[in-house]
C-alpha cells in the first residue's frame, strides 16, 4: 500500500514570498490533515478535510494560509506571504475515517521542511 | 482545553537499559491515546494505540504502554532498548467527540551502543 506522498521535501524562500505544498493521501482515505511542526515541538493541526469539505480550520492563520482539497483527493497548502516564524515542517496525514472511530489511525507523509529567510 | 504533556525532552540510555517515557493528557471527555515514533530521516509512524479495554497495550518492536485513567497518564515502556530505538517519540491524544489529535512536544531518545 502506497503511503502519503508530499512534495516538495524541502523549500527555502525569502520572507514575503509565497509557497505551496502538495499532498496525495492514501487511496480511499476520506480524511486529510495538515500539521505544522516547529522545531522542538509536536505537530499542530492546521486544517482537517473530510472529503473536499473543511471540518476544522480553527488553527489555520487565515490571513496568510490557505488550503484546498477540490476533488476530495489531493490537497494543497499555500502560504502567502511567508513570515520567518513559518519555518517548520509541514506534515500531511490521512485516515480512513475521522476521529472517534476505530479506523481513525492517521498515516503521515514525510513532510515538507520550509525555511523562510 | 485538550493538551498533552511529555515529561522528558531528551533521554540518553545505554543499550539494554529499560525505558519509560512519561505522558500525561488533559481532556474532559473520552480519549484515544497514541504513541508515534519518528526515526532519523523517516516520517512519523504509529507505535501503539489505546481505544478501550485492556489498559496495557502492546505495540511494535517490543514497546508497550499503560493507560492509567486516574492519573491521566499513558506512559511508554520497553524493557531493553536497542541502538535502533534512537528516535523521537510523540504521545498524542484524540478527543473522541472533537476528532482532534493533540501531540505532546516529543521526547528525543538517544541509545548509546
3D architecture notes:
- The complex is a heterodimer of chains A (117) and B (113).
- With 117 residues, chain A is mainly β.
- Chain A is built from no helices and eleven strands.
- Chain A has a single domain, classed as Immunoglobulin-like (Sandwich).
- In chain A, the strands form two sheets. In chain A, strands 2, 4, 5, 6, 9, 10 and 11 form a seven-stranded mixed sheet that branches.
- Chain A is globular.
- In chain B, strands 2, 5, 6, 10, 11 and 12 form a six-stranded mixed sheet that branches.
- Chain B has a single domain (3-112), classed as Sandwich (Immunoglobulin-like), CATH 2.60.40.
- Helix content of chain B is 0%, strand content 55%.
- By secondary structure, chain B is mainly beta.
- The A-B interface holds A 3-4, 33, 40-45, 48, 55-56, 91, 93, 98-100, 102, 104-111 and B 4, 9, 32, 36, 42-46, 49, 51, 90, 92, 94-106.
Distinctive features:
heterodimer; A: 117 residues; mainly beta; Immunoglobulin-like; seven-stranded mixed sheet; four-stranded antiparallel sheet; 11 strands; B: 113 residues; six-stranded mixed sheet; 0% helix
Summarize the structure.
Chain A contains no helices and eleven strands. By secondary structure, chain A is mainly β.
- The CATH homologous superfamily name of chain B equals Immunoglobulins
Largest interface (CB within 8 Å) is between: A-B, 26 and 26 residues
Number of helices of chain B: 0
The averaged pLDDT of chain A comes out at 92
The share of residues in helices of chain B is: under 10%
How much of the sequence lies in strands of chain B comes to: over 45%
Largest sheet data of chain A: 7 strands, mixed
The CATH architecture of chain A would be Sandwich
Poorly predicted ranges of chain A: none
For the record, the count of structural domains of chain B works out to: 1
